[in-house]
Amino acid sequence: MSAHSITEPSATTKWISGGLVVAYAVVTLIPLLWIVATGFKTPADAISYPPKVVFDPTIEGYVNLFTTRTRVTPEQLESLPPPEGIAEEIVRSYGMVIAGPSRFGERFMNSVVIGFGSTFLSVFLGTLAAYAFSRFKIPLSDDLLFFILSTRMMPPIAVAIPIFLMYRQLGLSDTHLGMILLYTAVNISLAVWLLKGFIDEIPREYEEAALIDGYTRFQAFYKVVLPQAATGIASTAIFCLIFAWNEYAFAVLLTSGTAQTAPPFIPTIIGVGGQDWPAVAAGATLFLLPVLIFTVLLRKHLLRGITFGAVRK
Amino acid sequence: MAEIVIRNLRKEFGDFTAVEGSSFTIGDGEFFMLLGPSGCGKTTTLRMIAGLELPTSGEILIDGEDVTRKPASQRDIAFVFQMFALYPHMNVRRNIAYPLVSQGMPKAQVKAKVAEVARILGIEEILEHPVSGLSGGDRQRVALGRAIVRSPKAFMMDEPIGALDAEFRERMAEELRALHDRMGATTVYVTHDQLEAMQMGDKIVVMNHGVVEQFGTPQEIYDHPATMFVADFIGSPSMNFIRFEGGFRPGDTSVRLAGAEVAVPALREEADGRRLVLGVRPEHVHLTDAADAVLRGRVEAVEYLGTTQIVTLSTVNGPLRARVASSEVVRPGEVAGLAFDARTLSLFDAGTGRAFVTAANEGVHDG
């Protein structure tokens, strides 16, 4: 009989669990890979049946995503000087010329400003509030915390109409500030609760040590508590960003021009010059990147253990 | 280096009174112990002295200056936490240097100071280590280093060795005391361990339920406890309490106990027909067959402790423990006569728990 260890899984168990994990990863990643792949297909390849897994990649989708194009007569096309660059060449192969840049870049930047702006504001206010709730005796603090939590108890879209009217009255419709405030309002309850949990975990002794070492309360907060709370702040920021970045319903309702974010814009690409799935897929692919990059950048803060051992529990 | 004066210090947390009107003076350079069971208010008192907690009322003077309402950062004291509270995101060197950095000290000077402290504490090799990998003893040394590097007016220590393993604890206790003797800085030390308090302290305050029960040197507190609580809390095994009813007048030198006259230190107070308690330390109980035996007891158990043994006896006045030399032959089941050292006895009022004033403890209890 072979010896069994309670803590160390056997080789078979490892293989089975490894296989399950890989299978799960493949299943969940297929739609994502499909989008990325579609972004590099021609419109014909994108809708071909049976679907093409192997295809000739082209950047046509990306060209269409970033440009607006107009159809010209073959005579006009011939009278033009030779195409400059690959983008021009692709467009002309369809009997069109580039008329100018599309709005995608602008909308994408709106998403960046609004998404990161509201994330920063949520985490900033959330950290201060969470610290206060965690460390100071606040009258009715339990009720206040419950109130903050209660703002999440119904789907935000349920109050869409009042918000729409309020924003119109206040002149916040279709403004960056309006969207930042709105996403902050939705995210702040999550931020306060998550961060309070993290800050509660940080022993008060650290700050007290800093206070005694001659630092002010704010310095103690800034120099001692914040580095300890980095894990919590990072994960809270990711959650906030994911919500603000992906939010669709309010963006459709409250933005149309200046402050429109990428989510309501991407579906409109499809209408420009037929069923341009590769351009949509290209937009979706680019849209995935910031959250991905942000998460990867903050990954090291997500690993717990930095406080391990400095205070004995 | 400073004298710390505590006047009528009081702290309430809502309806709960953590500290009730404490007053005592910590002399310059003293190693001062705040001793008591958990929840007695000793840590709250220490935190008020340090400025981490604001008193509800009362005064705290450090070096003659009223600091009651001053923030901790302006009191020029150092605090050693039970859980070390080393800054986890800094290495040993930066932890020790941190209080100096806050003062804006030039880098070269900080470096020299840290080196000096590291040498005193014998932690030069670990200066560049992260604090997370250190052993308990080393962490406590680093915490001490952070405290002494600034040469503050006074040190506050909240059970600094309570979290260490037993073997380390003894060594750190010695190191702490040696460090104190070398630096001569006023130190206020909180502990619930009476042995630690006796072993290290110049003066001890015994607290219970937010009240100062007694204030004095370890000898005074051990030999002449002011209350039954102190008598019971200090000493292992604790003081025997023999309950009886009776009375006495000032000048009496004995009390009647179970039909026998027991010699006690000359009494300075009077009591009539009250429930009294005679307190006698186990080491002051002698097993004897001579005529001076005041009580008789049956030996119930014998615990051998090396040089001494603890004999548990049952008497008509309840169980009693005696600490006798292990060379004495005592067997369970025997009946032995018991005699007490008259000079060492304490008499308490069973109702209030207070010790009566006698020739032995006169002047001890006023602190």
Explained architecture:
Chain A is mainly alpha-helical and 313 residues long. Chain A contains 14 helices and 2 strands. Chain A folds into 2 domains: 43-102, no CATH class; 105-302, MetI-like fold. In chain A, strands 1-2 form a two-stranded antiparallel sheet. The longest helix of chain A is centred in the middle third of the chain and has 32 residues, at 104-135. Chain B has 367 residues and is an alpha+beta fold. Chain B has 2 domains: 4-223, Rossmann fold; 238-349, Nucleic acid-binding proteins (OB fold (Dihydrolipoamide Acetyltransferase, E2P)). Chain B contains 8 helices and 20 strands. Chain B has a 6-stranded mixed sheet with strand order 6-7-8-3-9-10, with helices on both faces. A 5-stranded antiparallel sheet of chain B has the order 15-19-16-17-18, with no helix packed on it. Chain B starts with a strand and ends in an 18-residue tail after the last strand. The model of chain B has no long low-confidence stretch (mean pLDDT 90). The A-B interface holds A 203, 205-206, 208-217, 219, 224, 227-228, 306-313 and B 50-52, 71-73, 77-79, 81, 83-89, 98-99, 102-103, 131-134, 136, 139, 146, 150, 163.
